[in-house]
Amino acid sequence: MKRGLMTACAVGLVVLTAGCQRFSGGSNYATPLPATPTTPVGQGSLQPLDQTAGLNEGAVDPSAPLADQEVVAAPVAEPTGALEIGRSDMLGGWKLASGGDNCMAFMTLTTWSGGYRANTRGCATPALSSISAWDLTGKQVVLKDGNGAPVAQLYATSAQQFNGQTSAGSAVSLFR
What is the pTM of this model? Predict the structure, then answer.
């Protein structure tokens, strides 16, 4: 009885090991991916929070280098003739163009911080490639980054075309 049980266990172990890709050595075994390089974490002390932060939002610090300053454009005014749109009108793939950048944007109805999930493919500019969400406010479509900050504000000029501007003030179009 013990001998039969041990034989059955040994056969089961051999079958189990032969079926495992890691031990089979077959051509279907996927090699592990290389480690992703990361940047080292810096050290330093943080400055105390400024209680007046946000009061002069968008103000430019003249002493800061120009590259460190973020320019925030004024909200886009609703153009005459802007069309009423619904959330389902935004679903699917869109072509996205701003300046010399042409890429794709994809909109879903999966809830996300400050709206619904969106993503882009093939965008060269950091602003457009950071799009992670979209929201509909009245007739305005707002494209947002992963933190919920506006990247672009657009209005429908036709059922298949949206025009507006990025937060940096560049013209932007979303079309099919």
Answer: 0.58
What's the CATH code of the domain at 151? Answer: 2.40.128.10
At 92-108, the pLDDT tens digits run: 999 999 988 999 999 99
Q: What is the 3-state secondary structure (H, E, C) of the chain?
A: CHHHHHHHHHHHHHHHHHHCHHHHCCCCCCCCCCCCCCCCCCCCCCCCCCCCCCCCCCCCCCCCCHHHCCCCCCCCCCCCCCCCCCHHHHCEEEEEEECCEEEEEEEEEEEECCEEEEEEECCCCHHHHCEEEEEEECCEEEEEECCCCEEEEEEEEECCEEEEEECCCCEEEEEC
Is 105 domain-assigned?
yes
